Structures
1.
Amino acid sequence: MLKGCGRTENARADGLPADQGEADAAQPAYRLLEREGKLAERVDQAYAMLEKCELCPRRCGVNRRKGELGFCRAPGKAKIASHSPHYGEERALVGRGGSGTIFFSNCNLRCVFCQNWPIAHEGRGREIDDGALANLMLDLQRRGCHNINVVTPTHVLPNILGAVRIAHARGLRLPICYNTGGYELPEVVKLLDGVVDIYLPDLKFMDGEEADRYIVRGAKDYPDMAQKSIAEMHRQVGDLVVDKRGVALRGVMVRHLVMPNHVAGTREFVAWIAKNLTGKTYVNIMSQYRVEHQAFEHERIARAITSEEFVQAIDWALAAGLTNIDDRAMARYRMHKRRV
Ligand code: SF4
């Protein structure tokens, strides 16, 4: 049974558990934007982009409102695979009540080693309108989650904005966590300024040739687009801020998956963070690379990482002056360090 799931005791009129009161007194960014009358404008701007879709660096130019499909094969409506409190995310997102994840189907990136293949590559899921998506957000709030964690959101950004506005009118008070693979256009990320409180981007590759090799149909510009977009995210919300319980209120949390044979460019990743963001930036340097799907066809990534590779990755991060590394990553580091 999921801990905290279905928790309704001491619920407030807006559906928030009483012990969330203090953290939520911080107020999510979109409340102010709506009060200023600017949220509706953002929804319109984003929806206009669906008519000649340039929501991401693929710039397919298709009219998704008329049913045309681009690289991501996403329809005009949001398609979702699941929604539930999630306890496997970073501790600052999970707290006691869980992170309120909504997994969107389809993906604008599509890595050959994807761990969510049926959802991301095959697009399995069900289409819903913005009102129904808003209700899922409210359901996660009622179930005691600390945030609304939109997973693989890039290609459904207009739908998310539309749903946030509806959900806010119906009582949503949780911060939005934008959980992206990082293949974003910085100018589109600007549309999220004042809507998203927590950014959770991946920075998967630091070298365009590697990105081109291990992303379906290639994405040589991935490092450039991801870096510029993460810099914009950091400009908007800064370093991670948590409440006294350690639950995230706002800020950037960057994920990086260590890959075999230095494919992900971890040394360059930590150097980039230290130079372009701050040494206090929260980074999750992850060890759980698995050989999935088409990864078996690529010799350099057809194995797990070694203890030495993971220890080396964290050593580089420490040497670069990064001081806010995910605590579970540090625990794994200490464990692996004893072995090498
Ligand atoms: S969101 Fe999809 S359709 Fe739009 S540009 Fe990106 S890949 Fe193409």
2.
Amino acid sequence: MALTFDLKATDGAARLGEVGTARGVVRTPAFMPVGTAGTVKGMLPGQVRGTGADIVLGNTYHLMLRPGAERVARLGGLHRFSGWEGPILTDSGGFQVMSLAGLRKITEEGVRFASHVDGTRHFLSPERSMEIQALLGSDIAMCFDECPALPAGRDRIAASMEMSMRWAARSREAFGHPGDRALFGIQQGGLEEDLRRESAERLREIGFEGYAVGGLAVGEGQEAMFGVLDHAPAQLPANRPRYLMGVGKPDDVVGAVKRGIDMMDCVLPTRSGRTGQGWTARGMVNLRNARHRDDPRPLEEGCPCPACAGGYSRAFLHHVVRSKEMIGGMLLTWHNLTYYGRLMAAMRGAIGAGRFADWERGFHARRAEGDLEPV
Ligand SMILES: [Zn+2]
């Protein structure tokens, strides 16, 4: 089996488990830092690992345009090229073609588009996406699918879901069963429970090593997303990992785990770290704010990251963010990934101990306190 899933405990719908890949174990629920172009921006692989991350994500769309999948393959694959030895998940490129590329033309065959980097013309299909992900050598590959932006009409959602399911069958066919690499199917269907169920049934018939809930975090809002997650995970096989793509803020992550999601990814901790935002148990702190200018306290008391445990003050972080020093984005990225890593570890502990509901109450209570009073 290219991928194993060991479900160790459940607490309500929340699940504690381990995903086994050829390159190591992923403890779930897991948050996957995003290494868009083969690097988690501002962080060395060992530092990313040190935040508690077992797996990182790479983006097919970015890597196919630059430096090119064939080049990465010639240089030994994405693990060797990037220096990350652990498991890597690659997306299919579909979502970012829709959100970043210009001059898209979508047909049953695939998507023709212009690169957002240099305008060159490219083509992505289920077959080409599987080929690229094989060249990159990711441990977990994703089916090529189409994800319509929400809100969209039911007819549009249904037609898109049906094409994505035909593309899922083509993805499986092209991917094959290589033995050391796994393929995840992606459920679509927007906010429609019956379309989600139909999509899940089509995917189960094809058969995948894991299943993603796709088409969320595309503008529908948290309440609508949780509404889908109240039924979507249970429509997918219980004995396989469930991955919610592109989520999210800490309270989104907690709500998704509560509803039975095992894996997530989001650019939020890294991107917000580069724009001066630090996530703490008491919410998001904007280090650009002048209130931190004379504050000698760490960003978050008790956090083991170099920004907090390294003796840096909020005043220093404010200073390096405002003066656009590289170390500002690096330290805040490090802190934010550490925060997410500890959040996932805390949830795994709570699920294992059968006290997730208590833990969740504490999580929300601390956030409701808000940030420290200014000095
Ligand atoms: Zn910290």
3.
Amino acid sequence: MHLTHLSLTDFRSYPRLDLLLEPGVTAFVGANGQGKTNLIEAIGFVATLGSHRVANDAPLVREGCAEAVVRSRIVRGDRAALVEIQIMPGKANRVRLNRAPLQRARDVAGLLATVLFAPEDLALVKGDPAERRRFLDELLVARSPRMAAVQADYDRVLKQRSALLRTAGAARRAGSRGDLRTLEVWDRHLADHGAELLAARLALVEELRPRVCSAYAAVAGEDSPTDLAYRSSVPDAPRPGADAPDEATATGLTRGDTGNGTGHHDTASDRPAGNDTADGSSATSSASSGIPAPDAAAPRDTPVAPAVGAGADAPNDATPEVVPGVPGAAGADRTGGDGTGGAGGVGGAARRAAAASTRAGLAEAILAGLAEVRSQEIERGVTLVGPHRDDLLLSLKGRPARGYASHGESWSLALALRLASFELLRADDREPVLLLDDVFAELDARRRARLGTLVAQAEQVLVTAAVGADVPAELAGTRFEVAAGEVRRVG
Ligand SMILES: Nc1ncnc2c1ncn2[C@@H]1O[C@H](COP(=O)(O)OP(=O)(O)O)[C@@H](O)[C@H]1O
Ligand SMILES: [Mg+2]
């Protein structure tokens, strides 16, 4: 897929911007602070309804303004979709798809698939587990947009269950027994939704493993063995790559000491980069509250914002504005379809059946895990078992990358995770738009050229660099100059 239009109103440093884009490579070149990353961030926002730089939306709105609007036109094969997102800090964002308001903003997540490479990616290797959970969860949504609803459901249940635990804890401390019957109902919900998310993450990690290894070799130019392993807080959950070294064993810590199992935990450091909840529930929850019903707050015929290029550049009405896999658009049941637009999706009936049996097993494992830690949970008012406490362990040459890998190795591993994501999405027939924000400056000439060759195959690649010469020759293409919020085509 690719973008043909991006237009911004009061987004970051841009009062107003209209950009026409083409497939192939486009580089945005300009000195620091001129607004290059702001562009990339806006496109990333369309894909994930979140920013890769900040956890809440307020900084995305231009100083002194009440709201920002990002509009984009996405083309996939012979279909096109117009997505308009109105970002209103402190309120639910409003989304219009082909000019029709969507009930829930999150229904647009994953419609645009992107893979974003950015300096912040180093945190995938060196940062907290929340970074890696977010990596997995965003990739799940990019592959299968209905996963946004699965994640939002899980986050919602997690919040409610944890609130109940806090109430029960307070009651217990006050000497009464508290109402624990309701808790059992929430255990069940948590287990069901958690199992669905967990099953999806486990399957994803299996698919990523070989691809990360080959992408590492391709970008680093050396065949150092890399591996991924999913470490779950759920006792007895199947673990892809269970033989990979894990920080806990490598450092001699026990499960409880890693900040991931039943040990001390509620430090800010293990919270998601997205929404800070006491549990570290996944970062997608910002979109979970949805938007008010259109007739409650935004009458249907009140435009959220003018359409992209409402004049000469208006989308050609002859193009069928079919929206692959965005159920809310047509009022369809979100459990139907996986957003691959009839391309067959990521698996057939047999695979779904297998997933269902795995899910049932995982749900039981979560329930058993919760039973084990019940009194601790009540004492602390925190849900201690579930995918919001899990981690993706990355290893290099048999050692955990976090804590052992050099700066250069960490970079190569982060790039390998992104390249593997690109490959997976391609294999799903969800060719993503590649966004490379200022990454070439971080790399030596050889890795720069190798990365350039690897990403040049994508349908659309948008690159930023402070210095034009940093963009490798492999990525020659259209060029824009970015200066003081003006974006001008120069080649
Ligand atoms: N909410 C905002 N309102 C106004 N200006 C902003 C806002 N957020 C960031 N900026 C400005 O945007 C510029 C940074 O843009 P950025 O895209 O990160 O630059 P770069 O070209 O280095 O990638 C800075 O000058 C910053 O002050
Ligand atoms: Mg930048």
